[in-house]
Amino acid sequence: MLRLIDPTSVPALRRDAVDAxxxxxxxxxxxxxQRGGEAALRAHAERLGDLAxxxxxxxxxxxxxxxxxxxxxxxxxxxxxTAERIRAFADAQRAALGPVEIPxxxxxxxxxYAPVERAGCYAPGGRHPLPxxxxxxxxxxxxxxxxxxxxxxxxxxxxxxxxxxxxxxDALLAVGGAQAIAALAYGAGPVPVCDAVVGPGNRxxxxxxxxxxxxxxxxxxxxxxxxxxxxxxxxxxxRVAADLLAQAEHDPDAVPILxxxxxxxxxxxxxxxEQLLTLPTAAVAREALxxxxxxVVTEAAVAxxxxxxxxxxxxxxxxxxxxxxxPSLLHYGSLFVGEGAAEVLGDYGAGPNHxxxxxxxxxxxGALSVATFLRVQTWMRLDDSRAALPMVxxxxxxxxxxxxxxxxxxxxxxxxxxx
Length: 419
Description:
single chain, 419 residues, alpha/beta, Rossmann fold, 3 domains, 6-stranded parallel β-sheet, 6-stranded mixed β-sheet
């Protein structure tokens, strides 16, 4: 159960994304796949139970379609509608990132956003199948304009395969863990080298992403799920408890936190206990509740300060007094304002992405978005060499200031041409 602590004792969520032992093992696996290709990938996948001996590594596009068509019509509809909401939000992001062009002396300079050519999107497949993660990552990559999209997920359920089809994936690698990340980053047999590798996963996945980050773009190093709920005295204890448990059931390492504004914790703790009695995932949720805490504050400014110090993955505001904090909050992965904006609606496709920074890293990075798959490419053109003279002269002077004579001479040649 959540422990009651004083506001002055609230710990930071900052933590290392990967421990040293996990990093070392993941690095060995990644190195094996980088050197050994398909044979090493298969060996690790079979050793760790991803694949039966001789089973295919890759599920092709036509098999993904078969999986979708084999689902009940109601499940197909859920995937299609959810995909459309995610796609609409991602398309709006892409439309907001247009080219820039400004005049410079004698010419023009600009930038454009160019998608990476190939992306690998990881979706966990351990305790529960997560087709939602397939939709969140692969659809966003397609909206960014990525030409080729691969999904990787161990022991993929039919729903996961169907989600990959709906999201527009070209194929699915039926392997997980560090070995899947290595295959996406370096290529292995039928799996091509990807330019970006994204998606949530366990500590082995996170460690592998950290290892390959110098080779490919990654989204973030995400750890166990976190939720901070800020509730005032009018908040519904049942809704607050339900939101906390929805995150707690993810993983025994999840971190549910409750910040109460001038109200007793007893009704909220009682609601948690009541709902745990009938929750099928109560064992996992109860263990996760032990990682979290509840604290009571008397001032809104204190609540806001605690939220910004924690910089949580998810931040939910219940009740009018809590909702008033929204404009002043600075650090969070995703914000849910009001009791109606349940955090699980963000998990399951209201539009914003559910792949979010954890461990306090929301202070420095944000959600997976189309920008994750885009590169900023700058350019310049000079048409009027005479108008460019002052800028070129400054370049010559700055180069000599730095002791780089070849730079200075290259710029001086442009002075000669414009003389």
